[in-house]
Write a structure and sequence with these properties.
- The protein has 274 residues and is an alpha+beta fold.
- The protein folds into two domains: 131 residues, Pdz3 Domain, CATH 2.30.42; 111 residues, no CATH class.
- Helix content is 40%, strand content 18%.
- The chain contains nine helices and ten strands.
- Strands 1, 2, 3, 4, 5 and 6 form a six-stranded antiparallel sheet that branches. A four-stranded mixed sheet has the order 9-7-8-10, sandwiched between helices.
- Helix 6 runs antiparallel to helix 7 and helix 7 runs antiparallel to helix 8.
- The two termini are 38 Å apart.
């Protein structure tokens, strides 16, 4: 478990004990007159669970699953409560610092909401008109880590089958040299002792690397002095890279992929099964 996750668990535990809310009940949510304004995460209204997702105070909620959201917090809670288990999955679009970004969640937003100003609402909706969506099923979350000099690493949160089939190649792919060295030493020693011991070791380590790949990448990224900067949902890493640099022009992407994507027409609304 990474240092960041340990700190998060400590914060959650302290909040649970201080609030005295041990029955798991959520506070009632009421709607209010919005006059066409968008919802905005309230000052001092961010919860630890949403902070871990790297949402911020004053983030403006623009759309839910590709559709502009003009309802209140109670209606939003109803949307979250309508799905449970494996079906619980929503694509939320937020406006921050003049840019629209998406985040994929499978647990409801717990933070308190206020209202954006009329000018902020106009800016967010205007920016949303230029925002395009891919197929809903193609989205995944990317975690962006940044050091004090603005150098960013983008980590995919999807499981990579290469981590199980070829752990050495997976470590080389993500430039994880310490675990790569540990794997090579383990393989060399066990192969020298007994070929069957080598096969068992290979399978055990392959399973471990596959199941722990996200934590392995997070741990070594934090070890390099980077902190969790943003979580962005996208269908590809190139779009995440472009967005991170738009949010702050000083950001630089380490090991950036310079692939050029062919232009294509993308539908505005995400179509989902009823």
């Amino acid at each position: 478990m990474s240092e960041e996750e340990l700190q998060t668990n400590d914060l959650i535990s302290s909040m649970d004990t201080s609030d005295g809310n041990t029955d798991g009940d959520t506070a009632p949510v009421e709607d209010f007159d919005q006059n066409g304004l968008l919802l905005k995460v309230a000052v001092n209204g961010i919860t630890v669970q949403d902070y871990v997702k790297r949402l911020q105070e004053s983030d403006i909620l623009v759309a839910v699953d590709g559709k502009i959201y003009r309802e209140g917090p109670a209606k939003l809670r109803e949307i979250f409560d309508s799905k449970t288990g494996g079906e619980a999955k929503w694509l939320l679009s937020f406006w921050r610092d003049g840019q629209i970004f998406d985040i994929l969640i499978n647990t409801p937003i717990q933070s308190q909401f206020g209202l954006a100003t009329q000018q902020e609402t106009d800016w967010a909706l205007e920016q949303f008109e230029e925002h395009v969506f891919e197929e809903f099923d193609s989205y995944q979350n990317y975690e962006v880590y940044r050091d004090p000099y603005g150098v960013c690493d983008i980590l995919s949160m999807d499981k990579d089958p290469m981590a199980f089939l070829f752990p050495v190649l997976w470590c080389m792919k993500y430039r994880l040299y310490p675990p790569l060295f540990a794997l090579l030493v383990s393989y060399g020693v066990t192969l020298f002792v007994n070929v069957f011991l080598f096969l068992i070791t290979y399978l055990v380590l392959s399973r471990f690397v596959f199941l722990s790949q996200n934590n392995i990448m997070r741990s070594f990224t934090l070890f390099e002095g980077k902190n969790h900067y943003m979580t962005i949902a996208s269908s590809n890493e190139n779009d995440v890279s472009a967005l991170v640099k738009k949010i702050d022009p000083k950001n630089k992407i380490r090991f950036e992929r310079h692939a050029v994507r062919a232009p294509r027409v993308v539908h505005k609304v995400i179509l989902k099964e009823n």
